[in-house]
Each structure stands twice: as C-alpha cells, then as structure tokens.
Design goal:
heterotrimer; A: 208 residues; mainly alpha; Four Helix Bundle (Hemerythrin (Met), subunit A); 6 helices; 68% helix; 1% strand; elongated; B: 556 residues; Cytochrome C Oxidase, Chain A; 63% helix
Chain lengths: 208, 556, 347
C-alpha cells in the first residue's frame, strides 16, 4: 500500500472502496486493541509503584524491618491458585471458539471461584499479619501494592461474572462473536502477570 | 498495511450511535453527554478556554503583587495558592485539553476519513472527567488552596493545606485518567480507522503529532498517578513514603513526578507542532518541506523525551553520573526540534504567503519558539542550569515555550479551523489586532524575566530584593497588556460565531480531508467517505481544486 | 540589488553574524558579579552558549523575516508557490549542524562540570576535618557538648556522629592536590531562615562568614521542607533536603557581601528566606572568628537563646522582619503552619 512517492505531484489513483467500508453504521470492533493499549498504561502505573518500592528498599538498612516480616506459605498457595486460573480461563476461550457456550461457562465459573479464593486468602493474610498500613514504610508498600493489585483482581472478577451473566441469553456469545469473553481473559492474564512480579518483589525479595 | 482490509464478515461489529444523518446538533446538545467527536472537541475547547481565563486572572493577581518588592497586595499564602493553581490550570485544564482534547478530537477523524473516534462513549467520558477536576481545583480555595506549586514536592505538600492538597491530587488524577482514555482512543483510531485510500505517507502531520503525543501520555501519565497516590496516602492515611524521618525518601516523588511532567511539556507542544505543519503550508501555498523528517522528529522527540526528566532535578539529590547522562540526553532533544523549525522556515521559502490571522500566529510561534528553544538548550548544560535552576530564567523559558509556543499555536488553530467548526469566518481585522497585542504583550512580559533570573531572583516568590523592582514592573505592565489582548479575541469569537460571514466548505483552499466535507460537517462527517487522491500538502501543482471560493477577507 | 552577487551578500551577512555573535558572547552583561572560582567557569560556558545562540537566533529569525517579506502574496495573485517538498542534502546538513553543536556543548559541559568539582561531591572527608582542627588548635570534640545543645534543631551536624559526607552537590576542585577544605560550615535550612554552624569553633550564626581564597565546604541539610541554597554571585546552588546530605564546595574570590537566597518553594514566606554571605580578608575573618567564639563561650546559653526551636514563630521571625519586609501582625498569621512541624512541637 505504500507505493506512491511522497507528495508526488501526480494524482495517486486509488482503487474504489469496497461498499462495506462506506456504510454509516459499523466499523470493525476495536475493543480488544483499546484494552491492550489501556493495559500498557496500567502496567506503567504498577511500574511506578515498583520503582518507588525498589528505591525505598535500596535505602533501607533492614528489609523488611523487624516486626513486619511477611508470611510465605499462604501467599505461595495463593500464587499457585492465581497462576493456574490463567490456564483455566484459557480453556474457556478455547471452548467458545468451538461454539461450546456451556464449556465456556464452566471454565469461567471455575476461574471466578479461584479468583474469589485468592481474594479471600489475601484478606485472611491481611488479618493475620499483625501490622497495618501505617506501621512502617515496608508495611506502607506492602499494603498499597497488594491492595492495588487486589482491586484489579476484584475488577477482573466482576468482568468474568459479567460474562457469565450475559451468557445466560442463548446466542449472546458464539464462536464468531465473543469479544467480551476475550477481553475478560486478557485482563485476567494481565492481573496474573502483575501478581508474579509483585510476588517476586514483595515476598521473594524479602528472603535476600 | 492490511489494516484497511479487515474482512467485515469475519469480525464482529459494534454499532455507532446511529443518528439520522441530516439532523444537525442544536446548541443544547453541547451541554450534554454527547458522543460525537466534533461536539466533544468543541466542548473541550470552550471549557478549557474558560479555565484559561481563570488561570489568566490568577496570573494578573500575581503580577500585581510583584509590582512592588513587598507582599502588600495579597496574602502570601493566597499568592502561593494562585501560583500553584495558575500552573495546574494552565497545563491540565487549558493547554492539554485544548490542544489534544479539543483539536485532536475535532480533527483526527476528519483528517483520516473516519466517521468518529474508535470509542465514542469513552471519548465523552474522558471529556466529562474535566469539569469535576476544575471544580475540585476551584473548590480547594475554600480550604486555602493547594500551596506547594504545581510540582507539589513533599514534604511541603504534606504539611501545607492538607484538604486543599488532597483535592488537588484528586483533580490531577481525574485529568490524568481523562488523558489516558483520550490517548488510547487516539492511538487505536489513528492506527486502525484510517480510510483505506489514505496511505501512511499521506496522513497529515497533525495526526503523526497526535500519535506521538498519545504514546507519551499513555506511558508517562500512569507514573504520575502512582506518585500522586503515594502522596495522597502520606497525607491522609498515615503512610510515610516521602517522610524521611520514617524511612521514606523525598527524591522518589521528584522522579515519579518528572517522569510524567517532562513528557507533559511535549504533550503540550507536539500537537501544536502538528498544527504548525498544517497551517504553514496552507497559507504559504507550498508543500511542507521535509514531510518525513517532521513526522520522524515527532516520534524521536517522543522517544528521547522519555529520558530527559532528571534535568529538572539537577540541583536536587542527583548523583554526578545522572547529572551528566541527562545533560547529554537533554541536549540531544534539541536536534529533532531544530529539524522541525528549519523545515517550517524552509516551507516559507518560495511560497505565496497570505498573512491571515492564523498564519500570523503560526509565524509568531515560529519566531518565539526559536528563543524558547535556545534558552532550553542552555538549561540542558548542568553547570549553567545549577546557577539559574528555580529562578526567573526558568519562568521566562517555559513561558516562551508554552505561551509563545502552545498558546500561540492554539490561537492559530482556532483562526484556521473556526470556519470548519462553525460555518462562519472570523473577522480578520480584529484577528490582526489580537495578534499584534498578544505578540507585544508576550515579549514585554517574558523577555525581561531572563535577566531577572540570571541576576539572582528566585521563582515562586511573593516578595523580592528591591534591586529587581524596575524589571518586575516592566513585566507586570506587559502582563496587563497581554491580559487585555484576550478582549478583542473574545469579542471576535462571539460576534463571528453568531454574525460572521458564512464560510464555504474550503475557505483556505486546503488539501486535507476535513475540508472535503461541509462547514460545519454533518453528523457522521460525510455522506460518502472521501477517496484520497493526493498528499495532504500537494500545493503548487495543477491538481489543486479550482480556487472558486477564495473568500473576500483573505487578502493578506 | 541586481548588481551585487548573491554570494557576496551571503558572505557579508555571514561575517556580520559572526562578528555580532562574538561581541554579544563577550559583552551581554547578563551575569551578576563573579565572586567565586566556579563563577568564572560557568560564565565561560555561558558566554560560548550565548555566542552560538546569538548566531542561530540571527540566522533563523533573519531567514523568517526575509522570507516573509520576499515571498508575501502580491495582490491579485491566487497561484501557489513552488512545489518543492524537500531537499535531502539540505536536511542532512541542518540535522548534522545542531548535532555537532550539541555534542560539542555536551563535552564542554562535562569538562566544566568536572573542573567545578561535580564528579566527586563527597570529596570532603574526615581528613580535612582534622586538618582544620590542627590549624585552629581547638579540638572539635570539646565543642561537641555545645553543638549537642542544638540536637533537636541540627541532627545531622552533631559532632558525635560520623563526619558529614554529602552524597550530592559539588566537591573539591580536582586540581587541588590535597583536596581538603579550610573551613567547614554546617548549614540548616528551615522555614524561613538559614542557620550556619561552624563545627570547629562552635559558632552559630544567621549569616555566612568565609575567608577569601580559601576552600570552604558547606554541608547542607533541611529541617522541615526542601530548601535550596543559592549564591548567585558564586553561580552555585544545591537543594538542602530533609534526610539527605548534600553539599557545596567553593573558593570565594572577592571580598564583599553577597545574597544567599532560598530557591525552592518552601512555604508562604519563601521569598523572604534571604540571608547573606560575607567574604572577609583572612585577617578580618580571624577577628570575626575570635570575637564570636568569645561571645558565645561567655554566654553559652546565648546559642540556645537564639535557637529558633525555643521561640514562637513571631518571636523568631521578628528580628528578620525588616529583611522579610513583613509586619509583625502579618507574622502572627504564620504560626498555624509553623507549629505543625514535628521538630518544633517536640521542643
């Protein structure tokens, strides 16, 4: 398509448009592209938090300071649950591409359950740590970053539940019409990837 | 190059709000949640202009205070509230929404032959985040107003006017979200919704500029949001991210802040560079000189612009290697900017220049941006920057760039596209009066500030050493003159909008796509989408449309 | 015009631009007086930048004005201009020239930065401390309790702590063989005053006194919010940060009195946060040192008495009122914000 020279004085003759492109009422569904672009932006917000965390950590004498150690067992289980939920949700995507709405509902339901377990685990962890948001600067970072991520898991959960709600109507989703399903999946993978980085920074890195 | 050939049959489609193609918008539609990109563009422009007037009045109050060395006109705390909100409003509620939100929204779909933006509802949401942000900023004055500068460095921002500062943070998060939503909409629209006959190298340079701007906004705004969330927590929820005696660090805020706020300078100037590349060829009747160089320089500025932020922190807690790295990167940014300026000057060469009001503002921008750019290069060199950092030299520099640059560009764009937006011409005589007053006022206000700064006057002061009185009074006089220059403009806009001469579809004989539809354009822009047959700046050949409708008031 | 060949015109214009630029570069007269060794270095760099900027300004603005006049549309002419849309050699030329200029400027800046001592801000060390002690013949340790009185106000310069090593700022002149400072001053910025403490003699003042032509190390710390220590005549500036150690090193080259201004917004009376640096001859400096030491040793509480932490804000600021150009009743407005600072309340 890049044939003509720049600002060529000759008239670049163009093939006529296909009639479909000229119609008033429709253009290609670009929502997936919009979501991907948005997630690039979102990841940089997490990037800002991570950078602040690493800079504060770099200047601290002891990290985490005494009395605000993190627990490792429960978060590790939680990590396993969240990471495997990414595979589960993908099975749902595979199902809908085969026009298997019931299969999709099954896999998305399981994903929602796993997400809810993750969130409950997180709340349980908060309640049993013995320190709060304002205890010290490590606690600040810990609660802010995990809390902000938790908020994203919650939004992802709502998206999945929204998909399940809409899929009650027969024919709402099909093998060639499932953008909403795809978007919920992409968002869920994003939340998952952020968690892996977060887990490495907040939990694993405290071991060293 | 296959973006245009997405087979519609295999892709699900969404329905654009389908309105009867022949029902034009009524005046009250502009006060509603409307999804038409043209309505949203005008909503942005009018709203932001109101904030421009408010921010301008704050500047007048500050200049009145500075007519004498003593703090005898307004309370110093109020002075600080004014300087904070003047900066915040002018950046976040005037230049960014006017240049990107206003002209970007209005022009991008028209320039690429699309019926609307990719996500019309999201677009409307992005606009409606702005009024509450403005209300928060103005409302903060009931709580003393945020007083720690538009930079809001902690610890000062954490111990001064806590409620007002929190409102300020929320306002910035609102406009930041608006900016991110707008940016993703522009990126998807420009990349995926061009009319198939529009090739990459036929895309108007304004689109390239908005693309680069959006990429910057998308990557840098969330980092500012992160920094501000930490500040908000420090103020309200007892955390200590920026509290040094509790393990926090004040420098981290400055890095997060400037990682956004240096690119923010490009957010404000790149769209205006795009406007320049549209206006100069049309009114000089010449093809733009060096299309590819200008397009690539926008992308180069966008890329290098992400790695220069520490030059705002040369006298802060910045280690030597960082001072040197950012000296070099800052100096390098001057190269693509210089390329643009040289290209525009070369575009003037051999033209048939028509001195319309739009062209006068564009040329005024060109001549003043040269000065702002040169003072910017001197600031990149760390040894000199250490001397003038946070002095009036900085104030002079960024007003040359942002007033002499961005605001002049917005004025030029209004004069140029007003006929398209309203279907009526603006009065050229009053336009010229406006230009002369603005040009004189700008130079009278900001040129002497260079001397003040070099001689040792710090910025953001309500009281100063009496040795600087004379020059300050000159600046204050210039500021009053500059403020008065808005009056002929406002009269002109209001009068022309209702009584101006009717404009033809293409009053300037321009070649970009927005001029192929009616003035003002119909609701979905075209009955039948246009077919691109030539480049956007192919002036000087025999293929230019017949000059049947050159309007009478374009005598030059 | 027709008779004069274009090349000759261009040559004349070129010579004219060069001459004007050189002249402006040397005679712009924008900079204030030079009063430190670094000032001469900065001014040298600025003069070069001014020269290049003048040349570019004249060429570009000249081209704009010339084109606007020459290529203006004549009445009745509705045709277009020449369809030229680029020229690769020309574009390469005007990309290369600025590139070369900025790379040159970059290298020159690095050079100046190095000569100013920017590469090693922490070159002030404990060695210099003992060196000064030996000369002044007053063991700093004996002064420690006195400095200790200032602990709530001046945590960092406390003599009991390890030596203050600025991480940021400017250090010793790299050409100086021993790299030791002759005078060390601990400076604290607070809303809205500078406090200068001489650890070797225990003197605390509100003005900076330094001997001419001697290496002075200024250690900066902020007590409440960020301040910035700027002496325009020295061309030096460095932020004083809460919780971080910064510093400046300079050699004053001219006897006189110069302003010290705060250059970082620090609150309502930021503009009034001004002090001065008095550059003495060596003899005068010794006299000043002795007089103040005697005065402060006779009434050690005098130091505490002027300790701003013990005063209300109005009391503290009243002596500065003349300098601040504010009236006493205006000062009383301040107290709300001022007393919020933890350090103040702690007292």
């Amino acid at each position: 398509m890049q044939g003509s020279t720049l600002n060529s004085p000759e008239i670049a003759v163009e093939a006529t448009l296909s009639p479909a492109m000229i119609t008033h009422d429709a253009h290609p569904d670009l929502r997936v592209w919009g979501l991907l672009t948005f997630l690039v932006s979102e990841s940089l917000m997490f990037g800002g938090f991570f950078a602040a965390y690493l800079l504060i950590r770099g200047a601290a004498a002891a990290w985490p300071p005494e009395g605000t150690e993190v627990e490792l067992l429960l978060p590790s289980i939680n990590t396993v649950i969240l990471v495997s939920s990414s595979f589960v949700i993908h099975l749902g995507d595979v199902a809908i591409k085969k026009n298997d709405v019931a299969g999709m509902r099954k896999w998305y339901g399981i994903t929602a359950l796993m997400g809810a377990i993750f969130l409950l685990g997180q709340v349980y962890e908060y309640m049993n740590l013995g320190y709060g948001l304002s205890t010290n600067v490590f606690a600040n970072c810990f609660y802010l970053m995990t809390g902000f991520h938790g908020l994203h898991v919650f939004i992802g959960l709502l998206l999945i539940l929204g998909v399940l709600w809409r899929s009650r109507r027969p024919g709402h989703y099909s093998d060639h019409k499932h953008t909403g399903i795809e978007m919920a999946e992409i968002y869920w993978h994003f939340v998952d990837i952020i968690w892996i980085v977060l887990f490495a920074l907040v939990y694993i890195l405290t071991l060293f | 190059m296959t973006q245009a050939q997405i087979p519609l049959e295999t892709t699900s489609t969404i329905h654009v709000e389908h309105l009867p193609a022949h029902a034009p918008w009524k005046w009250y539609d502009y006060f509603t949640f409307n999804v038409d990109h043209k309505v949203i563009g005008i909503q942005y422009l009018v709203t932001s202009f109101i904030f421009y007037l408010i921010g301008g009045l704050m500047a007048v109050a500050m200049r009145t205070e500075l007519a004498t060395p003593n703090p005898d006109f307004i309370d110093p705390s109020l002075y600080n509230a004014f300087l904070t909100n003047h900066g915040t409003i002018m950046i976040f509620l005037w230049i960014v929404p006017a240049a990107i939100g206003g002209f970007g929204n209005y022009l991008i779909p028209l320039m690429i032959g699309a019926r609307d933006m990719a996500f019309p509802k999201l677009n409307a949401i992005a606009f409606w985040l702005n009024p509450p942000a403005g209300a928060l900023l103005l409302g903060s004055f009931f709580f003393g107003g945020a007083q720690s500068g538009w930079t809001s460095y902690p610890p000062l921002s954490e111990i001064t006017a806590n409620t007002a500062q929190s409102m300020w943070i929320l306002a910035i998060i609102f406009v930041g979200s608006s900016s991110i939503l707008g940016a993703l909409n522009f990126i998807v629209t420009i990349l995926l919704m061009r009319v198939p006959s529009l090739k990459w190298d036929q895309m108007p340079l304004f689109c390239w500029a908005i693309l680069a701007t959006s990429a910057l906004a998308l990557l840098s705004t969330p980092v500012l949001a992160a920094g501000l969330v930490l500040l908000l927590f420090d103020i309200n929820f007892g955390t200590s991210f920026y509290k040094p005696d509790e393990g926090g660090n004040v420098i981290i805020y400055q890095h997060l802040f400037w990682f956004y706020s240096h690119p923010a300078v490009y957010l404000m100037i790149l769209p205006v560079f795009g406007v320049m590349s549209e206006i100069i060829p049309v009114h000089a009747r010449k093809p733009i000189f060096g299309y590819k160089a200008i397009a690539f320089s926008s992308l180069a500025i966008c890329l290098v612009g992400l790695f220069v932020w520490v030059h705002h922190m040369f006298t802060s807690g910045t280690p030597p290697w960082m001072r040197l790295f950012f000296t070099i990167s800052t100096l390098i940014v001057a190269v693509p900017t210089g390329v643009k300026i040289f290209s525009w000057v070369a575009t003037l060469w051999g033209g048939k220049i028509r001195f319309t009001s739009a062209m006068l503002f564009a040329v005024g921008l060109l001549s003043m941006f040269v000065l702002g750019g040169l003072s910017g290069v001197t600031l990149g060199a760390v040894p000199f920057d250490v001397h003038v950092h946070d002095s009036y030299y900085i104030v002079a520099h960024f007003h040359y760039v942002l007033f002499g640059g961005s605001v002049f560009g917005i004025y030029a764009a209004i004069y140029h596209w007003f006929p398209k937006m309203t279907g009526r011409m603006m009065n050229e005589t009053w336009g010229k009066v406006h230009f002369v007053m603005t040009f004189i006022g700008t130079n009278l206000t900001f040129l002497p500030m260079h001397t003040l700064g070099i001689q040792g006057m710090p910025r953001r002061v309500a009281m100063y050493d009496p040795q600087f009185t004379a020059i300050n009074q000159l600046c204050t006089f210039g500021a009053f003159f500059l403020a008065a220059s808005v009056i002929p403009f406002m009269i002109n806009v209001i009068w022309s909008w209702s009584h101006g001469e009717k404009a033809s579809d293409n009053p300037w004989n321009a070649l970009t796509l927005e001029w192929t539809t009616a003035s003002p354009p119909i609701v979905e822009n075209w009955e039948v989408l246009p077919v691109v047959t030539h480049g956007p700046y192919a002036y000087g050949g025999n293929y230019v449309p017949e000059t049947t409708d050159v309007t009478a008031d374009v005598k030059g | 015009m027709k008779q004069i060949p274009a090349s000759l015109l261009t040559l004349t214009a070129g010579i004219l631009v060069t001459v004007i630029s050189f002249w402006v570069g040397q005679n712009h007269g924008l900079m204030p007086e030079q009063a430190s060794e670094q000032a001469a270095l900065v001014d040298g760099l600025f003069n070069v930048m001014m020269m290049i900027a003048t040349a570019l300004f004249l060429v570009v603005e000249g081209a704009i004005v010339y084109f606007l006049v020459k290529y203006r549309r004549r009445a009745g002419d509705d045709t277009d201009g020449i369809p030229v849309d680029g020229n690769l050699p020309l574009e390469a030329f005007w990309t290369a020239i600025p590139s070369i200029l900025v790379i040159g400027l970059g290298i020159y800046s690095v050079q100046i930065f190095q000569e100013m001592g920017g590469f090693d801000p922490s070159s002030h060390s404990m060695i210099s401390h003992s060196h000064v002690s030996a000369v002044v013949a007053q063991a700093p340790a004996t002064e420690a309790p006195m400095a200790g009185d200032m602990v709530p106000l001046l945590p960092a310069p406390d003599a009991a702590k390890p030596a203050f090593t600025p991480k940021y700022g400017f250090g010793a002149n790299p050409d100086d063989p021993n790299g030791q400072a002759d005078v060390v001053v601990n400076v604290t910025g607070m809303q809205y005053a500078w406090i200068f403490n001489y650890p070797d003699s225990g003197i605390t003042t509100g003005e900076l006194h330094v001997p001419v032509n001697q290496d002075v190390q200024v250690n900066l710390v902020a007590q409440d919010v960020i301040h910035s220590f700027w002496v325009p005549q020295f061309r030096l500036k460095q932020d004083a940060l809460p919780g971080q150690q910064t510093g400046l090193r300079f050699k004053a080259s001219k006897i006189g009195t110069y302003p010290i201004v705060c250059a970082e917004l620090c609150g309502s009376y930021h503009g009034g946060m001004r002090s001065q640096v008095i550059v003495h001859s060596p003899e005068e400096y010794e006299t000043w040192l002795t007089e103040n030491q005697v005065a402060q040793q006779q009434t050690p509480n005098a130091v505490v008495a002027v300790n701003p932490a013990n005063l209300t804000d109005t009391e503290f600021l009243t002596p500065y009122a003349k300098e601040l150009d504010v009236k006493a009743d205006a000062l009383s407005h301040l107290h709300t914000k001022h007393t919020m600072m933890p350090a103040m309340v702690a007292d």
